[in-house]
Each structure stands twice: as C-alpha cells, then as structure tokens.
Amino acid sequence: MRRALRLLAFAVAAAAVIDPALTWRRPAPLAVEVRMPPASHPEYDLAVALRGRLAAAADDVLIDSGAAPSAIVAFSGATIPEPPGVPVFVLRPPGAKELRIREIRAPRAAFGQQVEVAAVVKAVGLRGATSTIELHQAGAVVSSVTHTWAGDDDTFDARLAVAAPAAGVHPVSVVVRAPGVADARADTAVNVEDRRCRILFFEPRPSWSLTFVRRALEADPLFEVAAITRTSRGITATTAGAPVSLTAAALERYDVIVGGAPEGVTDAEWDALLRFVAVRGGRLVLVPDVPLPQRVRTRLALPALDEVLVEKPLSVSVGSLSMLATETLLAPGGEGSAVLGSVEQGSAARAAIVAVPYDEGGVILSGVLDGWRFRADPASQFELAWRALLADAAFAAPPPFAVEVTPAVARPGDDVLVTVTVRSTEFETAGRAAHVPPVRAYLVGGGGGREMIRLWPADGAGVFEGRLKAPSDGRFVVSAGAGERTAGAVLIVRDDTVHPARDDSATLAFLAEATGGRVTTSLEGLRDQLRALRPPVADARLRPMRSPWAAVMFAALLCGEWASRRRSGLR
What single-letter DSSP state applies at residue 370? Predict the structure, then answer.
C-alpha cells in the first residue's frame, strides 16, 4: 500500500514537471455584432428596443461580446464595414405603416428673402390618408401644406416657405402627421447671410425683357444692380459702378450676369462671359426676346428649343410662383439640365427655364420671351418670380472662400463633415503653376476654446474636407482661413436632434444578399436564421496539472503514505 501511494505521488510530481495538455475540438458560441444607427436617426429608439429583445430571445448567441463576429445584424441607418466578411442580416421594424422624412434641403438665403425649405416625405401603407407637413421654427408653425397619399408606397416633395428673420443660422424642424401612425420629424437649419446679391445686366441692344427684369430688382434692397447697355454702334450707357466693358477682372466681383439679345454678343465678350462662368463659378442668365441663333446654342451646349406661339397666355410655373407668356422657347428638360420653370402641355410638362452646368458655374436660359407684357396681370407674378430666380442664382455662385458643415444641426457624438473651398480665382500663381494657399480650420466653442480640425484634399482643386465628432450641447463656429481670406460656419449641437432617414433599403438588401444574409422583420425568424449558421469550431485545451486539484491530490498521496508508515511503526 505504501509503495503504491509513493509511486502515485511520484507520478503526479512527474506529470507536474511535464505539464501535459489535453486538446479537443468543440462548437463555440455564435458571436454576433449589432450595428446600430446613430442616436440622431429617427429609428434609433426602436432599434435599441429591438436589440434588447434580440439579446433576451437568443440566449445561445453572444451579442456584441467583443469576439470576432460570425454574423452582423444591422438596422436602417447603420454603417457596415466594407467588406464585412461575414453574413449581414438586416432587421427592419415590423408594421405595415410607415411615415418618414427622407431628405431636407434648405438653401442659403439673404436677410428679408423668402426661403423655400424642401422635404421629401415617404409614406407606406397610407393610401387615401391625408398628411399635414409643418415647418416649425422656435416652437411655432410658420408654414404647412397637406397631401393625400395616392398609393401604398408614395413619395411627396413638400415645399415650405419661411421668411428669413435675421442674419445667422436658424434651426427649423419639419414635422409630418398622419392618422394611425407616429409623427415623423427631422431637423435642419436655414443659413441667412447679411449680404446683397451683385447682379450685372448686359444688353448688346436695348430689350423690353431685360429692362423690366432690371426694374424688378432695382426696387428690392436685396440686390445690388449695375447695367451696361449698348444703345447704338459705338455708344454704351452704364450705371454708376458698372464696368465700361466686359473683362474677366471687371466681372469677378459679380455673382450673376443677366444678358439680353445674346445674338449681339461679340466673340471677345463671349470669352469674358464664359470665363466668368467657368472660372469664377458665376451664373450667366440669358433673357432673349427672339429665338436663339444656332451658334449661341452650340457655344453654350444648350438643349434644343421649340418656339411656341399661342393666343391665350400660358402659365409658366417657377417654384410656387408663376408668370404668363404667349411667346415661349420650350425644351425637353432632361438629362444634363435642371428645370427651373415649366409649362403644362396636355399631360406632360415642358421646360421653359433651364439651368445647364458649365465647369464651375452654370448657364440659365429663360424661354419666357414676352413675360414682361403680362407683369401687371393679377395672375402673373413676374417681378417676384425673377427676384426668386436671380437670388437663387446669386447664392449658388461660390464666394472666394467658403466653409460648410454637414449637418448644420447635430446631436452630440454625430459625425460632422467640414468642407472648405478655395475658389480657383484665389490660387497663388507662379509662372504656369497654380498653388492653393495653406488652409487651416478650427472648432471654436462659446468660451473661446479652439480645437484644430485636420483637413485633407478632397475631389476637386481647392476643396478640403475634415471630420469631427459633435461636442456637447451648444453653438459652435467652424473657423477657417487661407492666406488673407477667412470664413466661418455655425454648428448647432442639441441632444434632441433628429436627422432625415435616408432610404437605404436597396443598399442593405443588396449587402444582405451578397454576404449570404437576409432581410427580415421578425425577431423569431432572425434568431432561427442565426442558429442555422454553422457554429464556429474552437480548440479546447486543458492542462490538468495546473489545476489546484493536482496539488491537493499530490498532498493527499503523501499524507496517505506517511499515515501508512506511522501505523506500521516506521518514521
């Protein structure tokens, strides 16, 4: 007995020295990573609730354990790594009805100008229901429209007007209501600038069209108007402050040039005008009173135009405004151009005012030839329509140096994109080479503290981008400089901000199919699909001699051998 106990103790000691390992393979728990939308997403609270229910229902699945995931569960608005490398399952909220704001557009405006906020609203399962779309500012409803949904999957482009109250950045909210479904809300900001729109009128010959457009602007303090009129051969009349002739340097200070009688523009003048558009990034607005010559249309890459003469005036829709005309030039208005004004012909709409991009700027062609004749008609809003068109064109022309933050209204922790643009006219030239001056940017808080924003070159010469995390609640300024130029943009951070929910259903569905996952609205179905995945296999390794029980066993064997010796009278 004593010998057996001693041998066993020696064996345990030898095993402890050797430290053998026992290895076998076994299924590992399924690790799943859940990708959540940002807190400012309209479905964030619902996603949090669904994630909690998923974690409670799938007790054999590890949710966000930190281990390498075997699958990804994503909600709408979530960011997915590229490529994910594992199946992606998209969980959509259940329910047959949905009301969402997909996009908001709020253009820059000047003090006193009416701003048109556009919201793209989508409704699912609300055929025949009527929604109210409201624009809220400082807790009050400042504009609203109603819309009746024609289908079960319908989209409506709502336009809500608000007067710019003062210079600065003003938060606004769009709220959509419909019976039987939760309200949809999204926030944005209206950027009101304290500046005037600089407009130059150029008439190779006097024309009634341009004369009355100019008069409409001269009565509005929003515009700073200058004019050059060639009254006869060799004689030119100019207003105070207007250049004597068209040169690239003289035109650079203007935002928009409004030209009449384009058939009378000389080649040298065309060179200056096109440089103004292509390099300065300004807008050239053509207001002809006769059909355009082919050479002008070819030079500007304008679409084909049809002259339409009618006895009863046509109504030309310009946003929410309208003008009347009996002589028009109508274009198809398709790819490559934007329709700013249209005429209904039967069941189709044809473009009467089109905008065509041209390098850094653009050309706007008005096909409303005799709209000035109906300016006193109560059904025509000739002056208001032209003021709106030219104000929008002026604010679309880039300043020498600009800063933009997206989104302008954020929630703490949101990703904010900072874009700094240096216009090509501000590049430093040395011989034939042009260099962008060094650009710097900072986030400035209310207390004056500054945080540097790292900028990187983006697509396009003179364009720089940087990213930052939105700080805690407050109003901040993104300040940037390049050479002697400085500019700033306001960032408003609020903890209740909600962003539009962009429609990413097609992208997520494609990603799920490409990775072997699925799109589902059922938690039970998602749980079963996760369990159906082949569980990962892990190597399990055990070193028994490192267990405390090995020491206990060794001690017990020695104690047993010692007790046996004592009973036998041995020491």
Answer: S
Q: Exposed, middle or buried: residue 182 (CB in 10 Å: 0-12, 13-18, 19+)?
A: middle
The domain defined by 197-396 folds into: Rossmann fold (3.40.50)
pLDDT tens track for 216-244: 999 888 899 999 998 877 788 888 888 88
The stretches in the chain having pLDDT less than 50 are none
Amino acid letter, residue 565? R
Tokens of 510: 């494609």
Neighbour-count burial of 215, counting CB atoms closer than 10 A to its CB (0-12 exposed, 13-18 middle, 19+ buried): middle
Burial class (CB in 10 A: 0-12, 13-18, 19+), 143: buried
The residue to which tokens 């075997």 are assigned: 70
Count the helix, strand and coil residues of the chain and give each as a percent rounded to the nearest 5. Answer: 25, 40, 35
Return the amino acid letter for 301.
A
Mean pLDDT over the full length of the chain: 84
Q: At what angle do helices 208-218 and 382-396 cross, to 10 degrees?
A: 80
Q: What string of DSSP letters covers 486-548? A: EEEEEEEE-TT--------HHHHHHHHHHHT--EES-HHHHHHHHHHSPPPEEEEEE-GGGSH
Comparing CA positions, the residue from 6, 65, 2 lying closest to residue 34 is: 65
- What is the per-residue pLDDT for 86? 86
Which CATH entry fits the domain spanning 401-493: 1.10.3080.10, 2.60.40.1930, 3.40.50.450, 2.40.30.10? 2.60.40.1930
Beta carbons of 62 and 30 less than 8 angstroms apart: yes
SS3 163: strand
Q: How far is CA 254 from the centre of its chain?
A: 28
Residue partners of 339: CB distance under 8 A and separation at least 6: 333, 349, 351, 353, 354
- Single pTM value for the model: 0.74
Q: What is the rounded CA–CA span in Å between residue 92 and residue 148?
A: 26
Superfamily of domain 98-192: C2 domain (2.60.40.150)
> Positive or negative CA dihedral for 203, 206, 210, 215?
positive
Cα angle: 368, vertex 370, 376; to 5 degrees: 110
Grouping H, G, I as helix, E, B as strand and the rest as coil, residue 209 is helix
